[in-house]
Amino acid sequence: MRKQSEVDNFQGVDHEILENLQTATKVIRNTMGRNGLQTLLVSSVNDSSGVAEAATHIAYLMVQLGQRILLINMDCTMEEHVVSRLQPEKGDKLLKTLAGSPYMSEAIKQTQYDELNYIGIEDVDDKELMDIIDGSNLDSRLNPLRNYFDTIIIIGPDYERYERYSSIFETADSLVTISKDNTSDYRKLRTYLNESDLFKLYSLGVIRHR
């Protein structure tokens, strides 16, 4: 496990934001543990960068708390950003593995951080992404991985980009929502949260992103 001092130096993140994420991560970890939750979706209506930042750092901080983490990116627009942070090994990614292999483990790559593994995503348009996800039975295919990792964290794409988001909600049992402080459309946010309720996701709160 890496030293606590390394948390403060994680890719030059603003210390105040990192401190807030540390507190939130402890709450998330403890709540998931008490309620038997294992697959966390981090998503938003329209804040891809906020989701990528939050999910990546929550994953890293959970490793500091002694967890074995698998981070799965389902947002093509954020792949380069996440890869630059985690520097995973190269190889097959999510969609190729879903389409061509029965074993999700073939897409798992070790990052530069011990106990933090990653599944990246190819650069495809939104329709192709959802067509593959819809036909993949992804939730069931993650079951073997749930026996190996303490927590699976999913970076969800922007809700407003898709007419249907059910296949993404179905992959998780818990949800953290990222919301821009001053530019969120709260009617869309309420629609998003109401739809997530239909899938009985345990809401772990809303994190405001500046």
TrEMBL record:
InterPro entries: P-loop_NTPase (IPR027417)
Protein's recorded name: CpsD/CapB family tyrosine-protein kinase
Source species: Salinicoccus cyprini
